[in-house]
């Protein structure tokens, strides 16, 4: 299904796509959310930290954050707050190495590491505490979510009633090169510095695992991915990684009602990240392209309790559309 294109009525001073991206994500504040952390041990001698906000509901929404994000990002807090207010328990799981503590293994996460998401879903569903299970994926977490739903290899997918993904660069073949161009280097340089700092933490613990000098000389995130992520996770080369992890390759196989919301001015997305024709034909996959909003911005009033996205997400899960 292809939804209509709502207009995000951003303040006039947020007059560019970059301002609509940066200001809401950096300066907006969300109060009133308190997490309870649960640490679960993984099958490979590691751990995942799950941050819970429970209200005693029988409905749970599992949130996957974005690249180098965590449960304390403003978008996660905002979504948690409005979903709690509308009758949902929320679990925001932190990718390996993103919860404020370095993970045990020499490897961390990547855009297609769905075995961790499967593990989280199986852990939550095994408690039998919930009658309904939903998912939200933000940016890279959205790519991970849609890949998980479309892989046709995880039995846990059958437990998910519906999903929303937001601001997702689903086509890495074009979006990854796009990230290192022009003004997008504002974001890319920050990402690259963050992942390099994580590599430095591994150096003293695993001195023989990686060619640290070669990795730390990476000029951008694309080179870092090729030099670190690709060999560390067993991919043949960068092209192999891109084609195996990008969600665009799995959309046709999704059998769970899934809505993708991408702003038409998202600076990190290419035209290939708006699968309009697929949405028109698909029974399960839907697309909504907003007019304005930037990347995970969707700000109409920086001081408002809830932004456009949070209200849209709550409405979708409450009404199913």
Brief overview:
This protein is α/β, with parallel strands linked by helices and 321 residues long.
Give a description of the structure.
This protein is an alpha/beta fold. It is built from 11 helices and 8 strands. β1 (36-41) and β2 form a beta hairpin. The radius of gyration is 19 Å and the shape is globular.
Keywords:
321 residues, alpha/beta, Rossmann fold, eight-stranded mixed beta sheet, 11 helices, globular
User: Spans of 5+ residues with little confidence (pLDDT < 50)?
Assistant: none
Q: Mind describing the biggest β-sheet? A: 8 strands, mixed
Q: Quick one: CATH class of the largest domain?
A: Alpha Beta
Number of domains: 2
The total of beta strands comes to: 8
Strand content: 15-25%
Going by CATH, the homologous superfamily of the largest domain would be Alpha/Beta hydrolase fold, catalytic domain
Which structural class fits the helix and strand makeup?
alpha/beta
Q: Tell the overall outline.
A: globular
Instruction: Quickly count the helices.
Output: 11
Biggest sheet, spatial arrangement of strands: 1-2-4-3-5-6-7-8
> Mean pLDDT, nearest integer?
96
* Helix content bin: 25-40%
